[in-house]
Design a protein that fits this description.
- There is one protein chain.
- This protein is an all-alpha fold.
- It has 3 helices and no strands.
- Helix 1 packs antiparallel against helix 2.
- The radius of gyration is 11 Å and the shape is globular.
Length: 62
């Protein structure tokens, strides 16, 4: 079964997610999850980017 084609909603969400990945690396996953929740990021996105790094879209560039 093919992976769904996820589309970024906007650049703001990209920046929030990239920041959360840095938080996860510097601190821990729970801190990153709480940050993403506070920014109203969809739970499916949170799970994918923090718990399945192989499914991330690419590097952390802007």
């Amino acid at each position: 079964m093919a992976e769904p084609d996820y589309q970024r909603q906007d650049l703001r969400q990209r920046d929030i997610v990239n920041h959360a990945i840095l938080v996860q690396e510097a601190s821990n996953t729970m801190s990153a999850i709480e940050y993403l929740k506070s920014q109203d990021i969809h739970p499916d996105v949170i799970e994918r980017v923090l718990l399945e790094p192989q499914r991330r879209r690419g590097a952390l560039h802007h």
